[in-house]
Amino acid sequence: MNIMERLKRLGPGLVTGAADDDPSGIATYSQAGAQFGPSLMWTMTLAYPLMVAVQLACARVGRVTGHGLGRSLNAVFPRWLVIGLIALLFIANTINVGADLAAMGEASALVIGGWKRTATVAFALLSLLLQIYVPYHRYSSILKWMTLVLLAYVALILMVKVDWSAAARGLVIPTIAGAGAITTIVAIFGTTISPYLFFWQAAQEVEELDQIKERQPLSRARAQAAEALRRIRWDTFTGMAVSTVVALAIILGTATTLHAAGKTDIQSAADAAQALKPIAGKFAFALFSLGIIGTGLLAVPVLAGSSAYAVCEIGGWNGSLEASGRKSPPSIISAPFTRRPMRSSSRSAPTLPTTCPWVGRRALSKRWKAR
Q1: Distances in Å between the alpha carbon of 52 and those of 22, 49, 305?
Q2: Domain count of the fold of the chain
């Protein structure tokens, strides 16, 4: 299999890994690099196999069962426990979406000027409208191409003078410099291995089943297992590697510039971008800022979508990004009923497109169970 064929096989795993490096994550990695230099790079070496293991399990759940993670959890654990977990996911994701949108607004204001609140609202509306009006088979392609924005942070490394011997030591030798480093390590693992990624990748495997009629859940089509599991492994290993390399690039880039210059007080991704300007130059500043905006446009729909998928699954509905929202305008509460066939039944079930503020997921297609 040549390289182009391998690249075409990338999908949910690649997007999931890229979405891991959202503006909030960029802020965490920037703080680590600015405060502790390259000494905490080893955390990403340790995090990579953990990320792969967890995401592989989630992807396999979706591919084997044909259902998302929420529905699968509901089949094993008490319902009250699953509802509580998904409520926590919903709250955390909503806060994270707000933080990412705010960071995107700040970065936009730094690069092109204007009011950051206006830019924040504009990015929120853009993300919401894309999710409502662009069906999954197109939107997934957009998300895959948007992962290229992460190259901005790799390019940053090429623009600064890196102490590669210190970087190599930081990558393989665990170092903990006090209580502050412990807090940062916890933050790094928290932002790298996040629950919204679990729900998103499992749900995307289910979406992929809906796109190709020949594909069936592996529980009903074991003959497809070998090929499907090979694809999932390649996709997940690659996606998590992309996430890890970008995180390392951010830590190393801020360590080489901000830490070396004594700029350690970084509170957000926008702070890191602004602090880079007098040290690494205007181009590095612009590159870092545009990276914040690009990763935000990639991560916000993943955060919002994972909440929506989880809510649909625990509610007993099938939610899909593929269902069209063109025939009815988006509404904060609800929109008219339409009908579409359910995958698991020959009967049709009503679909209720619904959108929520902040959780702006594509008009949640809730296909109510046939009674």
Answers
A1: 18, 5, 21
A2: 1
